[in-house]
Design goal:
The protein is an all-alpha fold.
Length: 205
């Protein structure tokens, strides 16, 4: 199985990286950076392919928001808080949110769809999105390349000591999810408090 996986990554690495990047996630980019480190991939090509995949993925979500509102309203029902969060961030910070949304856990697909629901210029979104995707790919792949040896050592250790590595990975993921959930709750609570204060001042006048 391991030999098959290595062969597949070596033979079809760029295709796998492209598809993985469309579906989002830094894991594929870390894989690419590690393969650049081992000499199985070209750094410029890996960055371009990953960035292109990330760009296309967000363009798909943007146009889902713009042209598939009927389906999106059903999706909104289960993700109301996240869409509210995305709307608040876009309203407060504007276009930089497009640039940094790849680093916002839990909002990476929501923000492009939220922007698609608005009248935001599609060409402007595409330009910012493309630059953001290439920067995201370059930063992640270059870092993985620099720390390639350490990443390979961790993979090797995890392979032989999975009973330690698996609980640790679950703990780390749970911590990340909990942290971002708390941040989301705090931002929405502050926004709700400001909204209620404005209403209270308006009724007392």
């Amino acid at each position: 199985m391991e030999a098959f996986l290595i062969h597949a990554l070596t033979e079809y690495g760029y295709i796998i990286l492209f598809i993985w990047s469309i579906m989002e996630g830094e894991l594929g980019l870390v894989m690419a950076g590690t393969m650049v480190h081992t000499g199985h991939m070209s750094m410029p090509l890996a960055i371009f392919v990953a960035g292109l995949g990330g760009f296309i993925g967000d363009q798909i979500y943007f146009y889902i928001g713009r042209y598939n509102k009927k389906w999106l309203h059903k999706y909104l029902h289960n993700h109301r808080r996240k869409f509210a969060m995305a709307h608040l961030l876009l309203k407060k910070y504007g276009w930089p949110v497009i640039f940094i949304q790849r680093y916002l856990y839990g909002l990476r697909t929501i923000i492009p769809m939220s922007i698609g629901l608005t009248r935001y210029d599609a060409k402007k979104f595409a330009i910012i999105n493309f630059i953001s995707a290439q920067v995201w790919a370059a930063m992640t792949i270059i870092l993985a390349y620099i720390f390639g040896e350490q990443i390979l050592e961790v993979i090797e250790y995890a392979k032989h000591h999975w009973y330690f590595a698996l609980p640790f990975a679950i703990l780390m993921l749970s911590t990340i999810i909990y942290t971002f959930k708390r941040m989301e709750d705090n931002i929405l609570k502050r926004r709700q408090a400001r909204y209620e204060n404005r209403n209270n001042r308006a009724t007392t006048k």
